[in-house]
Every structure is written in structure tokens, then in C-alpha cells.
Amino acid sequence: MLQRIYAIFQARNREFIRDKGTLAWNLILPVALMFGLSFAFSNDRDAYTVGVLQAATEIETAAHPFLQTSYINFVAYEDFDLAMRKVARHQLDLLVEFGSEPKYWINSDSPKGYFVEIALLHAGSDTEASIDKQEITGDAVSYADWLLPGILGMNMMFSCLFGVGYVVVRYRKNGFLKRLSATPLTSLEFIIAQVASRLVLTLVITCFIYMGTHILLGTRMDGSYFTLFLIAVVGAISLVSLGLVVSARVTSEELAGGLLNLINWPMMMLSGVWFSLEGAPEAVRMAANIFPLTHVLNSARAVMLDGASLADVTPSLLALTAISIVFFAIGAKIFRWSQD
Amino acid sequence: MVATIQQLIVLCDCSLCRNQGNDGQYSDYLHLDLHFLPKSLGMTITLEARDIKKNYGEVLAVDGVNFSVREGICFGLLGPNGAGKTTTVEIIEGVTAATSGEVFYYGEVAGSRFRQEAGIQFQNTALQDNITVRETVEMFRALYQRQANINDIVEQCSLGDLLDRDNRKLSGGQRQRLLLAVALVNRPRIVFLDEPTTGLDPQARRNFWDLVKSIRTDGATILLTTHYMDEAQVLCDEIAIMDAGKIIAQGSPDALLRKQYDGLIIELPISDLTDDLSGIEHTVHENLGIIEVITTDVSDSLQRLTPHVSNLNQIKIRQPNLEDLFLDLTGHSLRV
């Protein structure tokens, strides 16, 4: 069994690695995107973002005149530690709490925090209640730091979905799968070989891109490389398994492409590749959790930017493992060799 | 041991005879002596198809096909386009599910042993891109427990100079030799060749025939489907002719020809006739402008024909061949 799996695994790896165009595209596109976007957004965010400590998800604008200020994006936070981390990383310009004892927290190194503080004090000048100021410190997380996990995740998503989904459909359409079906190779062995091949290739490429951008752009890494690698492994398996489901029966490359794009685009827009979903409606954020990429990016950013431990990202890893098992089982169950 | 056909029929253990009830009612088939060489005479049956049917929706592609293939022979499955040959073979190979019917390999339902011991060359098979000939052969070889020596396969299929060439850069003949090599990686006891020479030039076809002969010499049983009657005549010990999903004739090529044709064929162009051939039994191939007269006495027939023919130089006398048989059994009209 292992000999058969290895034979298919090796052949698929050779096929991909020798396809110079595809290999170059897989390497160059994410690196170019990373450099281009880092340069384009080197001045960081344009909008002001303020965290509001409160239990409700909707901002209660009546609580303070400052909350009615235009051109400031107010985001509700229930988790104090999380919000403080974001202030320390300059991801929030200010954190406020309007309760019985109003307070605000500001990073003294944040230029945007300085202007938002003026707006807060001006808005509150008509009220009698005083507001307590707390200063914290911390280095800024650049857009490049924040974007890198997104680019890596997006590249992984394309590589896993198309690398398995499209290729298996092509094999089925051109009769290669039918030829394999006439050998002692079982469908499970074939699927394992395809998943393993794509997993290894994706991880090697992802590591290469990460090392390149990390070294050249000096991106942040506060957590453990092992934990980050583990997230990449489990995330890639979940995405490959999703590609397997799409390719299990489809016989047309056009249909496969359409179905894969149907999955790709919502995942790319809602999983936090390009921008954070903080401030987005609760329903959107909940819906985003069905995508494996959301768990990959959230946990990768937690490790890279916030130094999250393995225990911290375990819920995401468990979610990805469950997604992988379900998708793999469905893919293996409905897989068929030929077009009949 | 000498046995009459009647004795052989009685002794025959093949599925067709069983399905027919051994009552001597074989009128739907041209059942001939070679088919009925049974196990009891020391001939092992390698493969047996029993009452195979395949429906694609309303269309009945294969309609109760029965045949058995004796060990070590080259068995040809012939038929016009759409006759159901490829579907039948793919059902036997296990890559297409039958609507009903069974396939037996050495007396057992074809299963894992069959997959290990069968070598298959499909009519159309794509191989992986960016993989060399050597790597392709090695990959398929690794899928089997029984493994042929790679050097032997390379030599047999004349792939020595092509080993490091990308699959995509092979000519038609080279590609067919590679696909045959892939079918031989497990030292198969039975080899399926589905129209292996379609699209090849005459030289490549004849080279391929030599390859097939060498496989047979090595002891493998071969099941060949082909459109080419000359190919079947050269390679096959037995043939079955299919039409409209059924086998309409089965036996050795010589026996089938003896059964169908009593004598030689005299051909002459219609345009050379001076009047009609009333009183002489003949066949007219209108689309070719040819008249065929089948005769056991060529001299007598020529004497009777001569007064009706303006140009004797165009007269041809030849043995009937499988193409004649094929056309007579399946008709001359174009299949759609």
C-alpha cells in the first residue's frame, strides 16, 4: 500500500516541480503581492480606529458624544486583554470605556492616538464627567506584518484547492484516472497520495515565501515557529480536503473552475486576507467561521503578532481538524475514477 | 485425442453453451470447433464473460454477451463503431460497471487477483505531463506486487532510446509502445489491447504486431479489440464479431471463413460487364463498383463469366478474408 501511495506521490511531485511556469507563478505572485502592498500601504491605515469596551456588539452612540464623531471607526470589544494588545500594537488608536468611571487607554508612541485623544477630549468638554487616562507602550504592527499571514494563507488556499481540485478533474477527463483504476491502486490510496503531495508542495512553497518576506521585510514573529508550522499543516490539510470534495465527481474543468472560484472568492473576502473583519456585522463574522481559511489566518496572526501559544490556538486547530476529517471523508466517499 | 465437433459440444463447459442449455440450438451463433475446446480436453479457460449487459439510460450498449478466452491465445473482439466492443472490454477490465452479468478469471469472479495479473492498454490514455518514459514505467510498475524486470520491458518495447524523453514528446508509435510497456509492468497473464494500432502508420502497425506476437510467445493471453481485419487475421487465434451489442459470430478466423464462404472470390468491375449476370450467383458492392462471385470451381465460373465481360484484365481471384466476413455479417451501411 505504501509503495503504491509513494509512487503516485512522487510522480505528482515531479509533474508539478517540472512545470516551471506554474511553480514560478506559485512563488512569484505572493512575493510580488507582499512587496507591492507593503510599499503601497507603507503609511499604514488611513482611517482612525477606536476600541470601545462594552458587552454589546453594537456601539451605543448615546453613551458619549465622542462615539458620534465622524471619520472614526468604532469597534466594540468585550475582551479587555485583546483590546489592550491591539492598542499596544497600534492596531487600535485608542481604547475607551464609558461606564460609571469613564477611562481611556492610549499608546504614547502612536501618532494617530494623539489626534484621536484630542477629538475625545474635545467631544467630552461639554460633559461634566471626567475621563481617566491610562498610557501604555508597544511597537506598531505594520500593514506588512498584518498582511503576511493573509498572503501566505491565500496562496495556500489557491495552491490546495486548485492543486488538487483542478488536477484530479483533469486526470479524470483525460482518462489518466481510468488507467489507474485498472491497476491494484485503490481510490483511498490515490487520494492519500494526492493530498500528501499537495501538502508537502504547499508547505515547502509557503515556508520559502515566508522566509523570503520575513528576511527581506523584517516582518514580526512573536510566537513559536513550531506552532505556526502546525497551523500551516492542519490548515493545508483542511483546504486540500475541501478541494478533494469539489473534484471527487466533477468531470469538467470548466465546472471545477467555477466551483472552486465559488469557494475561493467568499473565503478570500471574508476570512481576513486583505482586511480585518473587526467592525463587520456579527452575522458576517460568524459566517466567516465556516471557512477553514478564517481559522488559519486568525491563529497564524495570533502566533505571529501576539505571540499566542499552542494552547491559545488549540480551538482553531481543533476546528481545522474537524473540517479536514469531514471534507476528507466526504471526498473519499463520493470519489469516482471515471466519467461514466 | 480426436474428437468430433458434436462430442466437443457435449463436453463443452463454456458459459455460452450453458446459457444455450446444451440442446444443440445454436442458430444465432456461428459456433465453431475452436470455441468448444473445453477444460476437459486440457485447455484452461483464462477469462469468461457471462451474459454481460450494459444500459446507458434507454440505450442497450451490450446485450447479453457471452464468451470465454482460452489460456495463451490471442482473442480478437471485432465490430463496427458503436458495436459495444470497448464497453464490453471495459466491463471485463473492471473499469466500467455492468448492468448485469459476471466476469470470471480462472474460474473465480474477477477481483483483486485479476487486477494484479491483468495488463491493460486503453484506446485513449493520457499520461502525466513532465514525466519521462522511464518514470512512467517505474510508477506503474510500483503499483503491482508482480513486477517485471524494467530492462526486459524496455528491450521488448524498444524504448531504450526514449527512456529520458518527456511523455509529451513521443510520436504516435512511440507512445503506443510506452502504453504497451505500461501494460506489461506486472508480467501480466492476460493483456487487454483496445484498438492499439489506431492512428499508426503501416510501419508502426507492423512493428506493433511483432510486439504483440512476442507477448503471446511469452505465454500471456491476449484480448484484442480492433477495427483492422488484417490485424485480426494476423494476430488472432479466435475472434468474436460484435454488432449492436451482441456477438454474432465466434470462432477461429479460418473456421469462420470456411463456414461462411465455400470457395474463392472472383471480383470484377461492374463497368466491365456487357450484360447482366442472370444465372450466376453474385454479390454487388455498389459503392465500390465491384461484383463478387463466390465459387468452388474457378475455371467453370470464369468460363461462364467471360462472355459477359469486356475487359478480362480487371478480373481478380482471391481468398475470402475477415474483411469480407465482417462486412457480410455487419453490413456495408455507414454506422451513425
Count of discrete structural domains of chain B: 2
Distance between the termini of chain B: 48 Å
Largest sheet geometry of chain A = 5 strands, mixed
Helix content of chain A: 55-70%
Total beta strands of chain B: 14
In the sheet with the most strands of chain B, the strands line up as: 6-7-8-3-9-10
- Count of distinct structural domains of chain A: 2
- Rg calculated over all Cα atoms of chain A: 23 Å
Query: Which oligomeric form is depicted?
Result: heterodimer
Find the CATH topology of the largest domain in chain B.
Answer: Rossmann fold
Tell the overall outline of chain A: elongated
Question: What report would you give on this structure?
Answer:
The complex is a heterodimer of chains A (340) and B (336). Chain A is an alpha/beta fold and 340 residues long. Chain A has two domains: 232 residues, no CATH class; 89 residues, no CATH class. Chain A has twelve helices and five strands. Chain A has a five-stranded mixed β-sheet. In chain A, helix 4 links the parallel strand 4 and strand 5. Chain A is elongated and about 85 Å long. Chain A starts with a helix and ends in a 6-residue tail after the last helix. The model of chain A has no long low-confidence stretch (mean pLDDT 86). The N terminus of chain B is likely disordered. Chain B has 336 residues and is of the alpha/beta class. In chain B, the strands form three sheets. In chain B, strands 6-7-8-3-9-10 form a six-stranded mixed β-sheet, sandwiched between helices. Chain B is globular, with a radius of gyration of 22 Å. Chain B has two domains: 217 residues, P-loop containing nucleotide triphosphate hydrolases (Rossmann fold); 58 residues. Helices cover 31% and strands 24% of the residues of chain B. The longest helix of chain B is centred in the middle third of the chain and has 16 residues. Chains A and B meet through helix 1 and helix 6 of A and helix 4 and helix 5 of B.
